[in-house]
Specification:
It is a single chain. This protein has 183 residues and is α+β, with helices and mostly antiparallel strands. It has 4 helices and 5 strands; from the N terminus they run αβαββαβαβ. It has 2 domains: 1-75; 78-180, Ribosomal protein S6/Translation elongation factor EF1B (Alpha-Beta Plaits, 2-Layer Sandwich), CATH 3.30.70. It has helices spanning 2-75, 83-96, 126-137, 156-161, and strands at residues 78-79, 100-105, 115-125, 143-151, 168-180.
C-alpha cells in the first residue's frame, strides 16, 4: 500500500499544483487584462489630447486670420468716452451745411448703454438737410436713423439767418449711435 499511498499523494500534489497553476494563471490573466485596458485608455487619452491640441492650434490660426477684421469692426462703435467729440462732429456737420441744430439726449445717461440715442432738430433748406443726412449716414460709427420727420416749421435762429424762410424746413431726427463700452 505504500505505493498506492505514494501514487495517491503524488496525484493529490499534482492536483494541488494544477489548482495553484490555474489560480496563478487566472490572477495573471486578470492583471494582463487590466494592464491591456489601461494601455488602451492611455492611447485613447493621448489621441484625445492630440485632437485637442490640433483644435487649439486651429483656433489660434483662425483667430489670427480674423483679428484685423474684429479690430476694424470695433472701430465702428463709438467709445463712450468720445461722446463729446461726436456732438462736436455733429455740430460741425450742421455748420458746414448752414443748418441750425439742437441736440438732445433721448435717454437719461446713467451708465454705459449699447447705443447713445439722440434727438436732433435741424432747420434749413432741403438740399442742406439731405447733405447733412448723407454725412450722418457716412459717419465712422455704426448708427441707425430711427425717426425722421420733416415739416415747414422755422426756428427763430433759422429765420434770423435766412432772408427767405419759404424754403426753410424743420427736420426732427432720432438717431442711435452704437457704443463700445471702454474697460
Amino acid at each position: 500500500m505504500p505505493q498506492n499511498k505514494k501514487t495517491l499523494i503524488g496525484c493529490l500534489l499534482a492536483f494541488l499544483a494544477c489548482v495553484a497553476a490555474i489560480s496563478i494563471a487566472g490572477f495573471l490573466h486578470s492583471k494582463i487584462n487590466n494592464s491591456s485596458q489601461a494601455i488602451k485608455n492611455a492611447k485613447l487619452n493621448l489621441a484625445n489630447w492630440a485632437q485637442k491640441d490640433n483644435y487649439t492650434r486651429q483656433l489660434t490660426i483662425d483667430r489670427e486670420k480674423i483679428i484685423n477684421d474684429i479690430n476694424q469692426i470695433n472701430q465702428g462703435f463709438l467709445p463712450t468716452n468720445q461722446t463729446v467729440k461726436l456732438i462736436e462732429q455733429l455740430e460741425n456737420m450742421a455748420s458746414q451745411e448752414r443748418l441750425s441744430q439742437t441736440i438732445n439726449s433721448a435717454q437719461q445717461i446713467t451708465k454705459p448703454a449699447m447705443a447713445l440715442t439722440l434727438n436732433i432738430d435741424i432747420y434749413g433748406r432741403l438740399e442742406n438737410i439731405i447733405r447733412y443726412l448723407t454725412k450722418l449716414e457716412n459717419m465712422a460709427y455704426f448708427n441707425k436713423l430711427t425717426k425722421i420727420q420733416i415739416d415747414r416749421r422755422t426756428s427763430s435762429a433759422a429765420s434770423a439767418e435766412s432772408t427767405n424762410t419759404t424754403n426753410s424746413l424743420h427736420a426732427n431726427l432720432e438717431i442711435m449711435i452704437f457704443t463700445n463700452q471702454t474697460k
